[in-house]
Known about the structure:
Elements: H1 14-33, H2 39-46, H3 50-53, H4 55-67, H5 71-77, H6 80-100, H7 104-132, H8 138-166, H9 171-190, H10 204-227, H11 232-254, H12 268-297, H13 303-331, H14 334-350, H15 360-375, H16 378-386, H17 394-422, H18 433-458, H19 466-478
Helix pairs in contact: 1-7, 1-8, 1-9, 4-7, 4-10, 4-17, 5-17, 6-7, 6-9, 7-8, 7-17, 8-13, 8-16, 10-11, 10-17, 12-13, 12-16, 12-17, 12-18, 13-15, 14-15, 14-18, 17-18
Amino acid sequence: MRSEEVVDHTQINKFPIVAVLIAGAFLAILNQTLLATAIPSIMVDLNLTENTAQWLTTIFMLVNGIMIPITAFLIETFTTRKLFLTAMSLFSFGTLFCAVAPNFPFLMVGRIIQAAGAGIMLPLMMTIFLLIFPIERRGAAMGMVGLVISFAPAIGPTLSGWLVEYYPWRSLFYVIFPFAIIDIIFAYFVLKNVTKRTFPKVDYFSIALSTLGFGGLLYGFSSAGNYGWSSIVVIASLLIGTITLTAFILRQFKLAQPILEFRVFKNKIFTITTIVGMIAFIGLIGAETILPIYMQNMAGFTALESGLMILPGALIMGFMSPITGRIFDRIGARWLVITGLSILTVTSFLYTNLSAETSLTYLTVVFAIRMFGISMVMMPATTAGLNQLPVRLIPHGAAMNNTMRQVAASIGTALLITIMTAFSLKSGENAVPEDLIHGVNVSFYVTTGLSLVALILAFFIKRSTPAEDRAKLEAEENI
C-alpha cells in the first residue's frame, strides 16, 4: 500500500505530476465539444431527432457544472492520488460505456459517468498547481492550465469532424479510452499527495441545494436555445435554480465548514478577475458556437471548413498560453489582461459586419487574432485572483472560478443564440441568408459591449507581480 502522507511541495519532482494532470484534464475537457460534429452521424445511427441528440453535449456540461462546486469539499476530504485516480477511472469507464452503448439511454448514462469524473479534474489540477508551485512561478504553471482549457474544447470539433468522416462515431470513444488508461497507470506511480485533508463535515443538504441550484440554472439557460425563453421548462428550471442556489449560498455563510466558500468574493481583486474571466469565456465559447452555425447554415461552408476555421486560433492559443504564463510571472496580470481584452473587443467588432460573401480567410484570421487576445486574459486573470487568496482558500477559489466560468458559458451561449434568433430580419422558408446573418451581427455587437465592460474592469486589477503578492500574503499570515 502506497503512503498516504502529504509530501513536502519543495521536495517533489513536479514534471511527471504536471504531465499526468494535464493529460487527464485535456482528455476530460476535450469531451465537452468532441461530439459537436458527430451528432448528425449519431442521429442517423440511433434514429434520434436533433433536440434529443443535442442532449449528449448538454448533459455532459450539465453534470460537469454540478460536480465542480463539490470539488472543494472532495479535495479537503480525500487524498490527491485517491481523488485523481477515482475521477480518471470514472471518466474511463464512462468512455468505454459510450463506445459500446447499444442505444441512446445507455449512451446518455455513459456521458453522465464521463462528466462526473471530468468535473473533478480541472479544479483539482488548478489546486495542485497552485500548491506545488511557488507564487512567483504560478503564471507559467497556470499557462499550461490555460492550454488545456482553450485548446481542448477548440480541437474537439475538428478532431471529431475528421474521425467521423472516415470511421464510425464510436471511434471517438475508442480513441480516447486507451489514452485515459495510460494516464491512470502513470498517475498511479508518479502522483503524490499534495493537498491537505481537513475532513469537513458532510452537509448533504448543501450538496442537494448545490446540485439543484447550479443544475437548474445551467439546464434552464442551455435549454433556452432549443425551447425558447417563454417555455415552461426553461422558466421552471431557472426559477428552481435561482431559489435553491440562493438557499445554498445563504446556508454556506452559516456553516463552520461550507461546501463552497463564498467569502472568497470579499477579496476585490478575486471578484474582478473572476468577472473578467467569465466575460472572456463567453467571448470564447460564444464565438465557437455561433460562427459554425453562421458558416454552415447561412454562408454555405461545410462542417469540415467550419472546424478548420477554428483550428489555427486553437493552435495559437495553445502555443501562447505557456508564454503568457511566463510573462505574467515577470510583470503580473494587469497589462496582459488589458492588452488581451483590447484585442478581444476589436475582433468582436470585426465580426459585426458579416455577410454571405465573407471569405473563409477573413473568418480564420480574425478568429486566430481573437484567440491570441483571449490567451492573454483567461489564465493571467484567474491566477492573479487566486494569488490573492490564502492557501486554505485556494481549493474553494479554484472551484468557484471554474463554477462561474461554466455558468458564464451556459448563460452566455444561450443569450447570444437567443439574440441571434430574435434579431434575424426574417425566419422560416422565405428568409434569405442576409436576413439570418443580421442576427449574427447583432450578437457580436453584444459580445463587443461585454468585452468593453471587461476591459474597463481590467484597469482596476492592481499593478503587482506574483513575487509582491507572495510577500504580502506571507506578511498577512504572520500577523
